[in-house]
Amino acid sequence: MRKAALTILLMLGTAATVDSAPPRILIASDSTAANYASDQFPQMGWGMFLGCSLDPGSEVINRARGGRSTRTFLSEGLWSALLAEIRPGDTVLIQFGHNDEDLKKPQRHTEANGEYRENLERFVRDVRAKQGRPVLVTPVARHAFGDGHIRPTHGDYAKAVIAAARATRTPLIDLDADSRAFLDKQGEAASARYFMIYAPDDHIARFPEGHNDTTHLNELGARATARIVAHALAKLRLPISHHVHPDDPGAAVARGNAACG
Questions:
Q1: Which of 16, 148, 202, 224 could form a disulfide with 198 if both were Cys (CB 3.0 to 4.6 A apart)?
Q2: Residue 69 within any structural domain of the chain
């Protein structure tokens, strides 16, 4: 009886420690969420600004890395390194797809309904084994318009994330759909200002002759996308949701740095 009582007390103590610990979010993703140095400005990832929508004391551990697919995130040991950081109760956001889709780089490419989905489901199992809380995230939309409206570009990859979430009963943020809705509302011309799309007249030091990258986010796009993620996260009814206080994505303002405010 004493042994059983001691075990219960230890379990209660562990639960109390988890509940009282500052909330943490870990991000496993690609260049659209990654951190960037000042010399790479104006390119930024949404993971750099997610903490701006969290309670003070909350922590975002951004392990997103440019150019990675689910396959290379595993093969390069990035996933193992992230798993080693997980504490019980941590939330882990998992967003891949842009590089899994890349047919031109076979070392990255995975089939949507094959290796890609299998890797996502493995990520979910691994996080749960560490007593973390996985959240699957469809890839953020590209700036691709036709007939005045944004076009979906992730196709079967976005569908595979949704299917993996259903199969594993994992919370889902449909960032593809949410970001497309946001960009479509802005319109083709206005929404271009969220991406690495510049004309020579914009006088961007890195791109004196202009730039036309319809995939990667600039500072304004990263701030707005972080708010879109935060809005969705707040609605998931997870423990972390109580610590999320998102602002309107359309109110994001570029400030020339990675600070909140």
A1: 202
A2: yes
- Compute φ and ψ for 27, nearest 5 degrees: -120, 125
252 domain residue, yes or no: no
Q: How far is CA 245 from CA 30, 44, 55, 146, 241, in A?
A: 24, 21, 7, 34, 8
Instruction: Decide if 44 is inside a domain.
Output: yes
Residue-number span of the structural domain to which 194 is assigned: 23-245
Could you list the active site residues? Answer: 31, 209, 216
What's 65's domain CATH number?
A: 3.40.50.1110
Q: What is the pTM of this model?
A: 0.90
Tokens for 59?
A: 């922590």
- From residue 201, alpha-carbon distances to 35, 81, 198, 220 in Å are 27, 43, 8, 18
Is residue 88, in this structure, part of any structural domain at all? yes
C-beta separation of 226 from 48 below 8 A: yes
CB distance 99 to 72 below 8 Å: yes
How many domains is the chain partitioned into structurally? Answer: 1
- Closest by alpha carbon to 145, among 86, 194, 203? 194
The dihedral sign for the CA sequence 251, 257, 258, 259: negative
Phi-psi region of 235 (alpha: psi -120 to 50; beta: other; left: phi over 0): alpha
**12-62 tens-digit pLDDT:** 444 444 456 789 999 999 999 999 999 899 999 999 999 999 999 899 999
